[in-house]
Recover the amino acids of this structure.
């Protein structure tokens, strides 16, 4: 099973978080929003013009920028 | 007196609960160890008065944002007898961490699981007694919005306070919270045994609405359409109400005040009627519009649409060196710049905060809106008036964007941007009324402070010395206007308007009141006279200048206190003044050159 960056997933795809490559501050903020290794994450939509990504973890919907989404590794979803 | 602190993450209904507990009695207060004001209120619990303090919404006690530091400093400097932790039950999976942090600090705590109604809809069930036993703190379910479970919560809080556990004062919160791994393990254990969450979770209504409102192409046009309709509606509903107030004030003056005050000397009669009554009365006619504006903004804010606006606008905002939160704060600034500036505290990067604070004062606040509604009603046809207003909103955005582009190089930041998109919720009538009441009270407080003093001062300036015609070039005001003429003539602003501008520096609420005093007329008579004296080019140039030149003294004071820098405050004021003059100059001279 190989991992890919969260930013490469398409809307509608789900995957399991494999690693959070974030510095301390970002790590705490992600953790408070429910991002943890092993959690299921679903991409809902991308905003236009390389804008933020809209994702769902459990009951929480969150938006984050592509630069942050690149720091999150997920298990590659089954094709 | 015992002290209870209310703590929770953003979007958990913390303020709704606070308002329900305290009614309308809450007051802003100062606290040791922190420089910002927090809402506090005295509440009767059982037979005992206790003090309830509303702490800012935070995600965890580790963070470095200003709000997180405020909470830490508060807890380190003020002993508390009980911490009320309020969680959104729907998101208990992740919000439990905050409760566990409080438990680890050894603070006496009580957990309120709010939005229990919403969680039930999602199929989430919580075994409160079991959770309470595992966490060793009382746990109650409630819905602060609809009041269900509120009585139980009230009793639980009363009971917890009556335990008389010694108040705890903490030394250094960050050091106590070092062992975070334990918290994660406890969290998993508690969730497994006390909470049931269905595997597939989504709120259908929210998903369907988002599919339209966050549509790749339709999202932004829809957003601006909604805003435009909102302002149209305010105008449509507010205007007849405003006319009604004007009519009532005129009747009162003719029927009661004139006969009552007729025996007073001419100067006192003039000061009271043409000064105070006309000035304050003209401002009072705007109260209905202000109420409507805040009601509508409160609905938009409480529904969760503003965070969608942040999603839609972030791509543009990031290119301007800002982020979606800055855009939301700009929108809040359309109500009042002061809370919007304070709202930037959620940002951790100082550069990002300063750049946001630099653009927020260009947001067309409700006080400026009154001036524009008055001027457009006086000088433009009813068909053109909403378009003129809309164009001013566009200028408001435009000047903010221009400012961000010009100065983003000076204020570089790489703060990560992560924001929650809460499900759509519709506020209850009770919430809306309470919110409207708070805003009106705030407005009337300002009115009593600034407006009466302002209009009296304008009256004195326009009536001294006493042996010349009022408001003529020989009065103090006329001399002041004459002194300003070299700057203001090129942008088409006459001497009467110049005086109003000087007072507008203190508060925009005074502008219309001071025009009423300067011209010695109010309401429709004042509008007719101004329509006679000014043409639309001058009026629009005046409005442009008013929009940009400076928000008000309170905003400037807030800029200083939030940035903790005199240099930044002076820079912001100087830049606004320069931009205002250049913009009005370009518009006025351009329009005249085109033959208007």
């Amino acid at each position: 099973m190989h991992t890919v960056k969260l930013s490469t997933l398409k809307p509608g795809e789900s995957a399991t978080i494999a690693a959070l490559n974030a510095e301390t501050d970002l790590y705490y903020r992600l953790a408070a929003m429910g991002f943890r290794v092993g959690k299921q994450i679903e991409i809902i939509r991308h905003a236009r013009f390389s804008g933020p990504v809209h994702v769902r973890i459990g009951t929480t919907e969150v938006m984050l920028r592509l630069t942050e989404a690149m720091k999150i590794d997920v298990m590659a979803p089954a094709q | 007196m015992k002290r209870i602190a209310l703590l929770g993450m953003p979007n958990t209904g913390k303020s709704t609960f606070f308002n329900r507990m305290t009614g309308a009695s809450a007051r802003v207060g100062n606290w040791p160890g922190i420089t910002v004001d927090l809402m506090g209120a005295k509440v009767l619990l059982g037979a005992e008065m206790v003090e309830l303090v509303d702490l800012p919404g935070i995600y965890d006690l580790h963070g470095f944002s200003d709000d997180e530091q405020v909470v830490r400093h508060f807890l380190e400097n003020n002993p508390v007898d009980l911490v009320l932790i309020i969680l959104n039950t729907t998101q208990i999976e992740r919000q439990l961490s905050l409760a566990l942090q409080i438990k680890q600090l050894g603070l006496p705590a009580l957990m309120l699981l709010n939005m229990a109604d919403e969680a039930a809809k999602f199929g989430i069930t919580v075994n409160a007694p079991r959770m309470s036993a595992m966490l060793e703190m009382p746990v109650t379910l409630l819905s602060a919005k609809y009041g269900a479970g509120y009585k139980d919560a009230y009793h639980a809080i009363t009971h917890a306070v009556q335990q008389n556990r010694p108040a705890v004062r903490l030394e250094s919160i960050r050091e106590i919270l070092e062992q975070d791994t334990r918290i994660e393990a406890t969290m998993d254990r508690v969730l497994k045994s006390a909470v049931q969450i269905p595997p597939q979770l989504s709120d259908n209504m929210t998903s369907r609405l988002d599919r339209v409102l966050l549509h790749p192409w339709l999202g932004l046009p829809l957003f601006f359409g909604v805003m435009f309709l909102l302002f149209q509606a305010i105008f449509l509903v507010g205007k007849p109400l405003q006319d009604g107030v004007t009519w009532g004030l005129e009747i009162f003056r003719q029927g009661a005040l004139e006969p009552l005050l007729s025996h007073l000397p001419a100067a006192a009669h003039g000061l009271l009627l043409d000064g105070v009554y006309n000035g304050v009365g003209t401002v009072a006619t705007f109260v209905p519009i202000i109420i409507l504006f805040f009601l509508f903004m409160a609905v938009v804010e409480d529904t969760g649409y503003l965070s969608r606006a942040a999603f839609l606008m972030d791509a543009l905002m990031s290119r301007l060196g800002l982020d979606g939160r800055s855009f939301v704060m700009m929108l809040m600034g359309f109500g009042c710049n002061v809370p919007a500036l304070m709202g930037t505290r959620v940002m951790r990067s100082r550069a990002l905060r300063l750049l946001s604070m630099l653009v927020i004062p260009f947001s067309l606040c409700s006080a400026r809106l009154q001036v524009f509604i008055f001027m457009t009603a006086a000088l433009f046809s009813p068909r053109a008036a909403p378009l003129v207003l809309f164009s001013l909103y566009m200028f408001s955005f435009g000047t903010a964007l221009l400012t961000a582009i010009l100065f983003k190089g000076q204020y570089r930041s790489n703060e990560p941007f992560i924001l929650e998109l809460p499900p759509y919720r519709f506020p209850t009538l009770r919430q809306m009324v309470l919110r409207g009441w708070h805003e009106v009270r705030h407005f009337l407080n300002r009115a009593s402070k600034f407006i009466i003093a302002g209009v009296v001062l304008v009256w004195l300036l326009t009536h001294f010395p006493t042996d010349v015609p009022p408001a003529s070039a020989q009065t103090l005001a006329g001399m002041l206007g004459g002194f300003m003429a070299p700057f203001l003539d090129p942008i088409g602003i006459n001497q009467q308007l110049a005086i109003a501008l000087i007072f507008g520096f203190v508060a925009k609420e005074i502008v219309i009141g001071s025009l009423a005093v300067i011209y010695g007329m109010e309401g429709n008579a004042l509008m007719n006279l101004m329509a006679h004296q000014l043409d639309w080019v001058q009026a629009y140039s005046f409005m442009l200048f008013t929009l940009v030149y400076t928000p008000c003294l309170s905003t400037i004071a807030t800029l200083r206190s939030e940035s903790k820098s005199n240099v930044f405050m002076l820079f912001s004021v100087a830049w606004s003044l320069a931009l205002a003059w250049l913009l009005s100059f370009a518009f006025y001279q351009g329009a005249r050159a085109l033959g208007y």
About this structure: The radius of gyration of chain A is 11 Å. The CA atoms of residues 33 and 60 of chain A lie 8 Å apart. Chain A has one domain: 3-75.
